[in-house]
Design a protein that fits this description.
The structure holds three protein chains of three kinds.
Chain A: E1 7-16, E2 19-29, E3 34-38, H1 45-53, E4 60-65, E5 68-69, H2 75-81, E6 83-85, H3 98-105, H4 114-118, H5 122-141, H6 157-169, E7 175-179, H7 187-202, E8 206-210, H8 214-220, E9 223-228, E10 231-236, H9 238-242, H10 245-252, H11 254-263
Parallel strand pairs in A: 3-8, 3-9, 6-7, 7-8
Antiparallel strand pairs in A: 1-2, 1-4, 4-5, 9-10
Helix pairs in contact in A: 3-6, 5-6, 10-11
Chain B: H1 2-30, H2 37-53, H3 58-86, H4 91-113, E1 129-132, E2 135-138, H5 139-161, H6 163-173, H7 175-180, H8 185-211, H9 218-233, H10 238-258, H11 267-278
Antiparallel strand pairs in B: 1-2
Chain C: H1 2-33, H2 42-60, H3 64-83, H4 91-99, H5 101-111, H6 130-148, H7 151-161, H8 163-168, H9 173-199, H10 209-222, H11 228-243, H12 245-249, H13 251-265
Classes of the chains: A alpha/beta, B mainly alpha, C mainly alpha.
């Protein structure tokens, strides 16, 4: 008997005007796993993320987090319920410091009511200390000690990515959606990122990962879903997906797929 | 009596529609709330005034004023908005910069021209008035309605039935993709600025002629009604500008006739707030105006 | 000699009041800009505050505290009516909805006999004074700095930078927008009530478009990295026209120009300092 998935997407359809971005997508992410979502450019992966995190309204379909329907909730309510994400194009709060960025990620878990804030009372001080401590711990985990008080926009691309991950983790999420975390990274940065995600995996985090770097994906994921033109064309363990002819065709074209099939 | 009220309402409404057309086009295509637009209204009226005072015949001065202001619009856009567009600044930035420019232009104009109301030379008013079914319409009023209707028709035709209209709509939809297809975005935007500015100026000229009361801030009062019209009609929608314009005009006229005439200028604002509460997208706007 | 002394103090006093009141108005603009929104209703809210408190004092002999309170509450109500539907819409809607408020209210004041019509409302007794204005200003600055150094301050700046990302981080964007709008109205209403209190007379033409845009120029000149920026901008733009006569006559022209230059070339304003958004956490600082 399989446990209920942590994140369950059913019958998702996203249409804008005449374009169907996602068609009848079912996706189930089991708790404690790293689930990959791959596909050629334009397959609908970021669109799926936007719908799951609440930035985009789907045409139809349901989304459940830990059994609770979240499809009608605004993004900030989903975060409170345990959803977190990073963005493909790093949406860092540039003028804020690194530490402030990560502490903002913890917004929903930070206490302190207005009266306490104004009077600098005990509950407020406690809440700030706790949030800062948590943020510092995450930054340390992400290998960013020393960068805490720097302006976020001044960091290198790779470092900003890691800040983003720390920021996403700050809300103690049940599941983290990561949209191409390795994009634009050099090999050294990618290795550091892989190590970070491995650590998260060992700690039992649930991650839904979109990535183009196949090595990265195959090494980390327990299960992979493949999209092409908004439709799921394959799903399974990395080994299965890697040798699936439809997947090969989607990425490399029919000719290559056939020639590969002919050779094996 | 009612018929006259309705006719007045249609005339006023046509002014609003004509004015709103250019404004909604600017927003629909350039994603810019260009508040200097109201200034084109005043500028058009003033320019037409000076041209006729300098001896130009009315039928020549009107379109000329409008065209010249159209070019002025291109210039103003280049100065104010190009930089922001390149930096992909948020919409509110263009709103703020055009707001500042508006204050600058209006107060500068007031400083130069004074707040006195100016009038066209009497020789201009050659055309008489018509009487149709007990309703009295002057030539300039008729001209307003005809121009508004004509402009809407021409614009709709251009937007839906010509290649340039397609380019404009495509640019409004997705600027990057359209440019990749080879459309010269800069040229199209300048064209839209030109059309928009000259429509605003044309509205100013016609209204100036009709009410024969021209002063620098006249565009500002018009602008505030313009907001109500474009929000009621739907930001960026041409038919919406026409229908909403007429609606506001008619409601104002009826309010003036049957309630108190002093409240008629508040009608637009009340409609604006109501629209926001009931259907923010307006009559013809895309319902996807709300975010998740 | 005595006559010119009186004149001197008279002008001097008005300036002191003016700087304080404009400082409050600048803060009312600040709170909205600080979350990345644009409301142009501050002048209109000021007018509501002025008229409501003045009417209560003059016509109903209301106690000063009540008049002030009503002067803050009434604009908040107006802000809610206009603003609530825009909470989930693009910021453009709030901007457009608030621009026209001042002008519409002017029509209302002009046509209202109770409000004195075109002649305005005279005979407002002075019960506060410069001390009250500056006390309110100082309190407001303190509140903004305290709130800024907390999760609220972080949320606000995050919203200003990237509203969508802030929402995904868990910031209740509609709630914050509502809060900022109401705070803005309350501050502007307070400014209006206090200014009515010290000026003995108010009229319908002081709370319109030109004034609304001027308030924006205070904030943009000073910079919105901290609440001190807009106050600084207000001080400069209130004092300068008094010191430079030509500037006084053309002050609206100058204000408009300042906004254009600030948006295009000086987005951080004059006071580019940004204060930290973290409360007392006792960590070592570099």
């Amino acid at each position: 008997m399989t446990a209920a998935p942590l994140l369950a997407v059913e019958g998702l359809n996203v249409r804008f005007g005449g374009v169907t971005a996602i068609e009848e997508l079912d996706l189930a992410v089991a708790e404690g796993t790293v689930h990959g979502l791959i596909g050629p450019n334009g397959a609908g992966k970021t669109t799926a993320f936007n719908v799951i995190s609440g930035i985009l309204r789907p045409t139809s379909g349901s989304i459940q987090l830990a059994g609770q329907p979240i499809g009608r909730l605004p993004p900030y309510r989903r975060t409170a319920l345990g959803l977190a994400r990073t963005f493909q194009n790093i949406r860092m709060f540039q003028d804020m410091t690194v530490l402030e960025n990560v502490m903002t990620g913890r917004h929903v878990r930070t206490g302190g009511a207005v009266p306490s804030i104004l009077l600098r009372g005990g509950s407020f001080r406690h809440a700030e200390k706790e949030a800062a401590a948590k943020a510092l711990a995450l930054l340390s985990l992400a290998g960013l000690e020393g960068a805490e008080y720097r302006r976020a926009g001044d960091l290198s691309y790779g470092d900003q990515r890691r800040v983003e991950i720390a920021r996403a983790l700050a809300s103690d999420p049940k599941i983290v959606l990561m949209d191409e975390p390795a994009a634009g990274m050099n090999p050294a940065e990618t290795r550091a990122l892989t190590a970070l995600l491995q650590t998260l995996k060992t700690r039992g985090f649930t991650i839904l990962l979109v990535e183009h770097d196949m090595h990265f994906i195959m090494g980390l994921c327990d299960r992979i879903t493949v999209l092409n033109f908004g439709i799921k064309i394959a799903e399974g363990a990395p080994a299965e997906v890697r040798s699936n002819p439809q997947v090969i065709e989607a990425y490399l074209g029919a000719k290559v797929a056939h020639s590969l099939a002919g050779r094996s | 009596m009612l018929a006259q009220q309705l006719a007045n309402g249609i005339v006023a409404g046509s002014t609003y529609a004509l004015f709103a057309l250019g404004f909604t086009l600017m927003f629909g295509v350039l994603r810019v709330i260009n508040l200097t637009y109201g200034f084109y209204f005043s500028a058009g009226a003033f320019l037409a005034l000076y041209l006729t005072a300098a001896g130009a015949p009315v039928w020549f001065a009107l379109p000329l004023a409008s065209i010249l202001i159209g070019f002025g619009a291109i210039l103003l856009d280049a100065v104010l908005l190009t930089r922001l567009r390149r930096a992909r600044a948020p919409e509110l930035a263009s709103l703020m910069v055009t707001l500042g420019a508006t204050l600058f232009l209006y107060s500068a104009a007031t400083a130069i021209f004074g707040t006195d109301i100016r009038r066209f030379p009497p020789a201009v008013f050659a055309g008489g008035a018509f009487e149709i079914a007990g309703v009295r319409l002057t030539l300039s009023q008729f001209l307003i309605v005809a121009t508004a209707a004509g402009s809407v028709a021409v614009l709709l035709f251009v937007m839906q039935g010509t290649r340039i209209g397609l380019a404009i709509r495509a640019l409004a939809e997705n600027s990057d993709a359209t440019q990749l297809m080879g459309v010269n975005a800069g040229a199209v935007m300048r064209l839209v600025s030109f059309i928009s500015g000259s429509l605003g100026a044309l509205a100013g000229v016609l209204v100036g002629l009709n009410y024969n009361a021209i002063q620098p801030y006249m565009g500002e009062a018009m602008m505030l009604k313009g907001f109500a019209v474009i929000i009621l009609g739907g930001l960026g929608d041409i038919r919406g500008a026409l229908i909403a314009g007429l609606a506001v005009g008619l409601l104002e006229s009826l309010t003036a006739g049957y309630a108190a005439s002093t409240w008629k200028d508040a009608v637009g604002f009340v409609l604006l707030v109501l629209t926001l509460w009931v259907r923010p997208a307006g009559l013809f706007g895309r319902a996807s105006v709300r975010r998740a | 000699m005595p006559a010119s002394f009186d004149d001197f103090f008279f002008t001097y006093q008005a300036l002191i009041y003016g700087v304080g009141v404009n400082g409050l108005l600048a803060l009312s603009m600040y709170v909205v800009l600080a979350i990345g929104q644009l409301s142009l209703g501050q002048a209109a809210f000021m007018g509501i505050g002025a008229y409501v408190s003045a009417l209560l004092t003059v016509k109903l002999d209301a106690p000063f505290a009540v008049a002030l309170g009503a002067g803050m509450l009434a604009p908040a109500l107006a802000a809610a009516i206009i603003g609530v539907p825009t909470l989930r819409l693009s910021g453009v809607y709030l901007a457009l909805a608030t621009i026209g408020l001042g002008e519409v209210l002017r029509i209302f004041y002009l046509n209202s006999e109770t409000a004195g019509g075109a002649l305005g409302l005279p005979g407002i007794p002075q019960q506060g004074g410069a001390w009250l204005i500056y006390l309110c200003l100082a309190l407001a600055l303190f509140v903004f700095m305290a709130i800024g150094r907390s999760r609220i301050g972080r949320a606000m700046e995050a919203m200003r930078e990237d509203e969508t990302a802030a929402s995904v981080m868990g910031v209740n964007v509609p709630l914050y927008r509502f809060g900022a709008l109401v705070a803005s109205a309350v501050l502007a209403g307070l400014a209006g009530a206090l200014s009515a209190d010290v000026s003995s007379f108010i009229g319908p033409n002081e709370y319109g478009f030109d004034q609304a845009v001027t308030i924006l120029s205070y904030a943009l000149l000073g910079g919105i990295g901290s609440p001190f920026g807009p106050v600084f901008g207000a001080i400069i733009l209130t004092l300068l026209p008094e010191l430079l006569r030509p500037l006084h006559d053309f002050r609206f022209v100058v204000n408009g120009l300042i906004i254009v230059i600030a948006v295009l070339y000086m987005p951080r304003g004059l006071l580019a300092w940004r204060f930290r958004r973290i409360g007392p956490v006792g960590e070592a600082r570099p």
